[in-house]
Predict the 3D structure of the following.
Amino acid sequence: MILAGDIGGTKTLLGFFDPDSGVHSPQSLHSYPSRDYPSLESILTRFMGEVDPRLSEGSLESAAFGVAGPVISGRCQTTNLPWIIETSSLAKTLGLSPKSVALANDLVSIAWGITIAPPESLETINAGVGNPQGTRVVVAPGTGLGEAIIGMHNGTPLPIPTEGGHVDWAPTSPEEIPLLLWLWDKFGHASPERLISGPGLAHLYHFHAQSPPPGGTLLPPDLPEEKVPETVSLEAERGNPLALAVMKHFWRLIAAEAGNMALKSLATGGVILAGGIPEKILPFLDRTVFMDTFTAKGRYRQLLTTIPVTLSSDPDVGIKGAAEIARRLVRSDHSSERSPS
């Protein structure tokens, strides 16, 4: 049995998988509110106490966790949680060898999940002409903005983490220059994550609320900030012109950033949108506007029209990717055992 985890700023998802029957169907899956716990180890202790009777002694072979933040030498200072996570401590909590525990950037886990995703879990935005051996990129707005590159080496996927959500953001039209100035004034730095994320959707609302369109209705002033993104989506469903303007702008921002990532990595294999938010706001997607924005890169417009763009509709793609990492750890260990010394 292998253990996988998807560690997010909002929730922590943990599950057991059978490496012999694939990683698409977890044997058990539990969700915990991340901010209610002082550490990942405390969640693991509770999880193991709740499900351990289902496991025979010593049946856990490996574990892997995707976590939001840069992972360096088996250690991560989480971006959206006050946690420091280390593989050595996780191994001790689980009673495993440190070699049997992996810690990966959450987008690396999602990227691994994408590599094993069934075609029916991917919604097509642009069919394009994909190169099966070409580089792919993942753009995943959620609590933050995660981005990863999926390279290929001898036919094997090679997910590469990035912190692309924290680079400089630039307007794509004169109309967005006031937004840049607003972000500078509010944060001192304008990054894609300040706009293309859950909190970013709230920021975008506050910017547009300064000059609402005709008929636009403002949200209640005492609405908690964490409720703004969901409420904007609900208001857009009701036809509120202000909320609709925010959602349309949000999709254009995603498209522009996805096009940037496609060019920076020459993603001839395709661009995949993931992270939870795109799937939830899919009803507000105008595919024509999306592709017009995605391809608006001057002399490289024609190249970008050939790149496939899909949207992952599987909410568990991250934990399945972590399970794939854990499965590969088991396979690597077994290969080492068979190798002559």
